[in-house]
Design a protein that fits this description.
The complex is a heterotrimer.
Chain A lengths: L2 H30 L19 H9 L1 H32 L4 H9 L1 H5 L2 H11 L6 H9 L12 H29 L3 H10 L3 H29 L3 H6 L11 H11 L3 H29 L1
Helix pairs in contact in A: 1-13, 2-13, 3-8, 3-10, 6-8, 8-10, 9-10, 10-13, 12-13
Chain B lengths: L3 E10 L2 E11 L4 E5 L6 H9 L6 E6 L2 E2 L10 E4 L11 H11 L4 H14 L15 H13 L5 E5 L7 H18 L2 E6 L2 H7 L2 E6 L2 E6 L1 H6 L4 H6 L6 E8 L2 E4 L4 E4 L5 E8 L4 E4 L6 E10 L4 E7 L2 E7 L10 E6 L5 E4 L5 E2 L2
Parallel strand pairs in B: 3-8, 3-9, 6-7, 7-8
Antiparallel strand pairs in B: 1-2, 1-4, 4-5, 9-10, 11-12, 11-14, 12-13, 14-20, 15-19, 16-17, 16-19, 17-18, 20-21
Chain C lengths: L4 H33 L19 H5 L7 H32 L5 H11 L4 H15 L5 H25 L4 H8 L4 H30 L2 H6 L7 H4 L4 E2 L2 E2 L1 H21 L1 H8 L6
The chains are: A mainly alpha, B alpha+beta, C mainly alpha.
Bound molecules: adenosine-5'-triphosphate and magnesium ion (MG).
């Protein structure tokens, strides 16, 4: 067989799978979002609502806006904190040597941990009666030791962020270490000889050259932060109240607890929109490399 | 003004010795070239002077100051890297201005100095570009400009021309020579190209396995090699090195082939060194010895004839109009004034 | 006395080491803490003990009625394994083609494959939920496998493509000139050379499938429940059974740690889908 045909034949199964498992549901979700889609009724057709699901979300649902706000602030803080801390850690670990390389290989461990389990682990640590965290404060700062972290809306939100940051730092650090390693050493040494202090070298030479990798890291983390579900579900289940209800969690709740498939699909699709921009930016970086 | 003094300088990585207990004094305003084969420790020596590598032992002085504990930025040096080390995200102007900016030079002073440096390396048209948009030779000039924009005590250059094509290398070499003459700054220059070393250097330090084999002017290095290694390393084509012994004033190879008269006492375990240009091609029977031609090469400006006796080959340089056929016998005569004798086992020069 | 440059450097280095040790500590605490809980008795777990008499009792209990974690373990293994077995060959073929040929619309296709990775799982799962309910695939391993393909495929394609990109073309071309067909080239040359990469991608996808949570939460309820969802079993009326939760946690995470350590060199490349190196 000629390569001309073979090359399409080879990608065909993959394209079919991707279409069936990802593109179709994406389109189908869009379609569902225009219908009432109550799960209590049998199958479709159900009544066509047009954009009513969307207007409902925008106009009638404070809970929707609450989730938007939670997701936005959650994304902002997790992206910011994870990136900064990971950058710091990457700079600490990049020079190599036995200790640093050992810690680098340890980094892989938290990353292989299932996010759901991270949620469980943090809920365990933040238990007010026998959690490690309160015990820790019991020693260093007793007034904080009796706080019930997960029952307070603000604190619960920050515990979620902590868990997220903890889970993602290792991966981002590894990516940034890779990025740092690809910066030509002689540019850094040239700056040292030119008279720059450690801090100036970092600011003038290292960081500017790390910008492309940092951008990739930011985008990737933003995408995953926007989608957050597993950890929050296991850690706070959106609570107390709806203080930590991310959009994914909101969709899950409306779709499956209240069987409003059409409405959830509409909200889910609203989540797709920022993703399109982020994916576009990400793809630009990937193909710019070639 | 500054001299650079290295005292018992050593660099080890575990058991591996990169630079082995070397002492060297580089005079003020001197252009010193470190020359040697790959891996002999040239870069390591230079990086220790720059402060980019900590010595395992020994002392480094720049001027009158011991700089072992000073960071690179406090050593008042400028360095040109093999791959130039240009800042890819800065324009050429900013690249050149960086050493001034980072040392807090007042703004109004920076601009004219950058302009002047750019003029000296003929880069003024490219100041607004990024390094990516320059050719190799132009990048090389940027690296030079960045070094000369300040007036450091010492220039360090690590094979600055090695990434250029052959032609550009020759012209940049001349520019470098001119520039160094103008600037009169102590310079340490690393290369493994002996022509660069010979043409640029006030003095050359020939290194091998982390040790300096000989330190001297290009002339001394070429005409008065201290040992077998230097003799064989310097010169292209390399010096003919013939193993043998002296019997009654005649140098005889292991196979009993008489090469030439030598005025020295009888002794065995010797190596005789003759530069190709000190071997003259003559008609068979009229020179010191006759050999069959193994190869005949015409380089344009001259011809090289390789002769073979036993398993020993000798190369002679001849006039460019000379012709010889392969397998043909040819005579060669040796210039008695330029013979070198070495001890075969120690490699040391034997002087009489 | 003013410090010399080198002394400053050394003290800064010492500070760095302290910071690194603190970071390593913070990184390990949540894992170690939950791992310790798995070996504590029901009583010890509520008492913050650092030193305790370890017991394996929890690991027995979780495999007994009413928890029967072995079913979930079995489901998780089957689902992750079959997903990988389906995804990898398909992805390898596509990756080879993307790597070695120029296809019409290649960039669009590749971006689309990349983009599906970024679609929120809740968007994907809703239509599947409706469809599976209608055709009876809810709470089946098969259903879960199909949906898992949606996250695993893009990773696998991009990752394997990266590995094949790294194999020089000339061996292949030499074989083609020597008279092999394209399929023979793929079988005899590309596959053996790309094998480490393909295994890496397979392990990577296995980890993703194993840790997957949202799909399993929505699409399974009893028979096809996987390990991460199984954690919910230990939320009792009177509160969470932490020692059992922890034991289940160990069973979920330890195999993945081992797999992750095997392929750690390639983790970054896989996760960023070629955007970094
Ligand atoms: N960081 C290091 N760790 C271990 N060995 C090293 C290190 N840096 C250099 N070496 C070794 O030290 C020796 C000297 O290296 P150096 O770079 O000084 O050689 P060089 O003379 O500059 O060679 P070249 O002409 O190839 O640049 C080499 O054998 C090299 O492998
Ligand atoms: Mg070198």
């Amino acid at each position: 067989m000629r390569d001309r045909h073979l090359k399409y034949l080879l990608v065909l199964p993959a394209v079919i799978v991707v279409f069936a498992t990802a593109i179709w549901p994406l389109v189908e979700s869009l379609r569902l979002s225009f219908y009432e889609g109550r799960l209590s009724r049998p199958a479709f057709p159900q009544s066509f609502l047009g954009v009513e699901n969307y207007t409902w979300a925008f106009l009638e649902e404070p809970a929707f806006w609450n989730s938007v706000w939670v997701t936005a602030t959650y994304t902002f803080w997790t992206v910011l904190l994870t990136t900064l801390l990971a950058l710091g850690l990457a700079l600490l670990l990049a020079p190599g040597g036995r200790l640093r390389v050992t810690v680098q290989s340890l980094l892989i461990i938290p990353f292989a941990m299932s996010p759901a389990l991270i949620g469980v682990s943090f809920r365990f640590m933040f238990n007010p009666e026998f959690g490690l965290f309160d015990a820790f404060f019991g020693i260093v700062f007793p007034p904080l030791a009796t706080i019930s972290w997960l029952s307070d809306p603000t604190l619960a939100f920050w515990v979620c962020i902590m868990a997220d940051v903890w889970g993602w730092i290792p991966f981002l650090t590894l990516v940034l270490i890779g990025g740092l390693a690809s910066i030509p050493r002689d540019t850094i040494e040239a700056a040292q000889v030119d008279g720059a202090s450690g801090w100036r070298v970092l600011k003038d030479v290292t960081l500017p050259q790390l910008v492309p990798v940092l951008a990739v890291v930011l985008i990737l983390k933003a995408i995953f932060s926007l989608k957050t579900f597993d950890q929050v579900y296991m850690l706070t289940n959106g609570g107390p109240g709806t203080a930590t209800q991310t959009l994914s969690h909101y969709v899950y709740f409306n779709g499956l607890k209240y069987s409003q498939i059409g409405y959830s699909a509409a909200v889910a699709w609203l989540m797709v929109i920022p993703m399109i921009f982020l994916t576009y930016a990400y793809a630009k970086f990937v193909f710019q490399k070639k | 003004m500054a001299k650079v003094v290295l005292t018992n300088l050593t660099k080890r990585w575990g058991d591996f010795v990169g630079v082995d207990n070397q002492s060297l004094e580089i005079h003020d305003k001197e252009f010193l070239v470190l020359l040697g084969p790959s891996g002999c420790g040239k870069t390591t020596t230079m990086r220790m002077i720059a402060g980019l590598e900590d010595p395992t032992a020994g002392e480094i002085r720049i001027g009158d100051r011991v700089v072992n504990d000073a960071l690179p930025k406090d050593r008042d040096i400028a360095m040109v890297f093999q791959n130039y080390g240009l800042y890819p995200h800065m324009t050429i102007y900013d690249n050149i201005a960086y050493p001034l900016k980072v040392r807090g030079t007042p703004k109004p002073e920076i601009e004219p100095r950058v302009q002047k440096a750019a003029e000296q390396v003929e880069l003024t048209e490219f100041l607004h570009r990024k390094p990516k948009a320059l050719s190799g030779g132009q990048r090389q000039r940027v690296a030079l400009a960045r070094a000369i924009v300040r007036h450091p005590q010492v220039f360090l250059m690590d094979e600055p021309l090695s990434n250029l094509d052959a032609k550009l290398r020759v012209s940049m070499r001349a520019e470098l020579k001119h520039l160094s003459h103008m600037l009169q700054v102590t310079t340490v220059y690393v290369t493994h190209d002996q022509i660069e070393a010979m043409t640029l250097a006030d003095r050359v330090a020939v290194m091998k396995n982390g040790r300096i084999q000989q330190l001297g002017t290009p002339d001394e290095i070429y005409n008065d090699p201290a040992n077998l290694f230097v003799a064989g390393f310097i010169g292209s084509p390399a010096m003919n090195l013939i193993e043998g012994r002296i019997e009654n004033g005649v140098f005889v190879t292991q196979g009993g082939f008489a090469v030439t008269k030598v005025e020295a006492p009888n002794r065995s375990g010797l190596v005789l060194g003759v530069r190709p240009e000190d071997l003259t091609i003559v008609e068979p029977g009229t020179g010191d010895f006759d050999v069959p031609v193994y190869a005949f090469e015409n380089t344009g400006e001259s011809v090289q004839i390789t002769g073979q006796f036993n398993r020993q080959r000798v190369i002679a340089k001849g006039d460019r109009y000379l012709k010889r056929e392969i397998e043909e016998m040819t005579g060669m005569s040796v210039d008695q004034k330029h013979l070198y004798l070495f001890d075969q086992s120690s490699g040391e020069r034997i002087r009489n | 006395m003013a410090l010399t440059g080198k002394q400053k450097k050394q003290s800064w280095n010492a500070l760095q080491i302290v910071l690194i040790l603190i970071a390593a500590f913070i990184m390990l605490v949540p894992i170690v803490w939950i791992a310790m809980a798995a070996f504590k008795t029901h009583v010890d777990v509520y008492q913050l003990k650092l030193f305790f008499a370890p017991t394996l009792e929890n690991f027995k209990t979780v495999f007994q009625a009413p928890y029967h974690l072995e079913q979930k373990l079995f489901n998780s293994t089957i689902v992750a394994f079959v997903t990988v077995v389906l995804a990898i060959p398909i992805a390898t073929c596509a990756a080879y083609s993307f790597s070695r040929f120029t296809l019409r619309g290649q960039t669009v296709l590749l971006v689309m494959i990349l983009a599906t990775q970024f679609v929120p799982a809740v968007v994907i799962v809703l239509p599947f939920f409706v469809m599976f309910r209608d055709i009876g695939l809810l709470d089946t391993r098969l259903g879960l496998i199909l949906v898992n393909l949606s996250i695993v495929m893009p990773f696998a394609i991009w990752m394997i493509k990266g590995f094949i990109d790294g194999i020089p073309m000339d061996t292949e071309e030499a074989a083609l000139v020597d008279g092999s067909t394209r399929m023979q080239v793929i079988r005899n040359i590309v596959l053996p050379m790309a094998a480490p990469g393909i295994v890496t991608a397979a392990i990577f996808c296995f980890i993703i499938g194993w840790n997957e949570f949202l799909f399993a939460l929505i699409l399974t309820s009893k028979d096809a429940v996987t390990l991460p969802i199984g954690l919910a079993l230990f939320k009792a009326e009177e509160g969470d059974l932490w020692n059992l939760l922890a034991a289940a946690g160990i069973i979920i995470m330890v195999p993945m740690f081992v797999l992750a350590l095997i392929i750690q060199k390639h983790f970054v490349q896989g996760m960023t889908m070629g955007a970094v190196r």
